[in-house]
What we know:
Layout: H1 8-35, H2 38-59, H3 62-72, E1 80-82, E2 88-90, H4 91-110, H5 118-132, H6 140-161, H7 167-193, E3 198-199, E4 202-203, E5 205-206, E6 211-212, H8 214-220, H9 222-234, H10 238-258, H11 261-276, H12 281-299, H13 301-331, H14 342-350, H15 368-392, H16 405-422, H17 431-445
Helix pairs in contact: 1-2, 3-4, 3-7, 4-6, 5-6, 5-15, 6-17, 7-9, 7-10, 8-11, 9-10, 9-11, 9-16, 11-12, 11-16, 13-14, 13-15, 15-16, 16-17
Amino acid sequence: MVAYFRDSGRRATALGGAAIAFVALVAAWFGVSLAGTKTGAVLALGAVFGPVLLSAAIVAPILFPFSLYAFLTPFDPLLAMTTQSGTGSTITLLVGAASGAALIFYILRTKRFADPPRAVAVWLLYFLWTVSSTFWAIDTKETLSMLPTMLALFGLYVVVSMLRIDAATLRTVGTAIVAGAATACAYMLFLYSRGMANTEDRLWLRNDSVQVNPDHFAAALLLPIAIALATLFFTRGGMSRLAMLVSLALMLPVMILTGARGPELAFVALAAYVIAHHRKRWTLAGVFVAFLALIVIKSGPSFAERWTQALSDGGAGRTDIWKVGWLAFKENWLFGAGYSNFPDAYNHALIRVFQPFFAGWSRAPHDILLQAGVELGVIGLVLLLLGWWSQFRVLRHIDASDYRYPMRIASEAAIAGLFVAGLFALQMETKYLWLAFMFAVLVRNTRLSLKGSPADA
Length: 457
């Protein structure tokens, strides 16, 4: 955010906005004090901050509400709003919807269009095939129940892909992504210090009613870690590098404490990709190997035990699930069993496959490739692979002389890491995955600057 207000005009606007925000905060405090109830507090805060936030959404929607969406993504499952019927959405979903509406209005108002990358066309074909699978799905209701989530994420991705921004705004988005993850990790470490987050020797992000799957939370850290590493290795800004170093000091221990083996392997791939593109790659590689050795030593027997256990139980039964899934793929190889119908196809094939460790009925595939193959057939699998590849290559035109180069490396490393993590858990319906895709297209759509270099960015 600081980078956005770097010139004098924006500084003046920022100072004026800060003064107004301070007065509004005082007024909000009195309003909340007088309200007496939660509903009254919300109405009071909305009355005070509503006009300010609405103005921000109209003038700079990528700063608000989209940056707020990026900040809240690691917390998403904890922000559920449950209705009396037991169903509901999350605050992050509502902020994402508001971001999409605000960005559409901004693009139409300013006419600052950017040509979407080819990856958008590939993902469009993938989603059209996904929707078409409704017609031959084993359980149509299951397919229809999951489609809105996928289409909402894809819709926001398409809108972001048409937005042209400047370098300061890109830095603000990147800062929001890292700050959200670092804040979530700080909260987890606080819970850990109080003995409130450790279950089965694994760290869980939780509140009184909801807890986040450690595998998904650790995977959500991959993009922030990639941004922090690229900033640390490829830029010279002292304060920025210090902030990213502090963020890494929060995120890396939490990733290890989650015990999520897939994301841990993905982190190794991500870090290796970043290091391989640095001119001092061999020195950094030696430091990284020493860092990994230190982690193994300091983590104690539980860390080594989880990796050893993966060899004995097939990764918590994943290999047995994949055996059944392979048979289900052979039975549905052309068109698939229908989106979100893997459990039904799995149950149909289960009785004919021997499992040394019985994984149970109606299991998830724990692999995005197996999921696509069984649910969408070979056509959907090919489209999925093309989508990932085109998304990975969306920044290939940015070379080392471009000031966006550090964020190119961060984006590519994050996408590569997320793909590795996706081989062990489902990610296509997650906000953190599509946030990584959106960040990549924002880097692509950032206006070129005649000033600046990788060292100055």
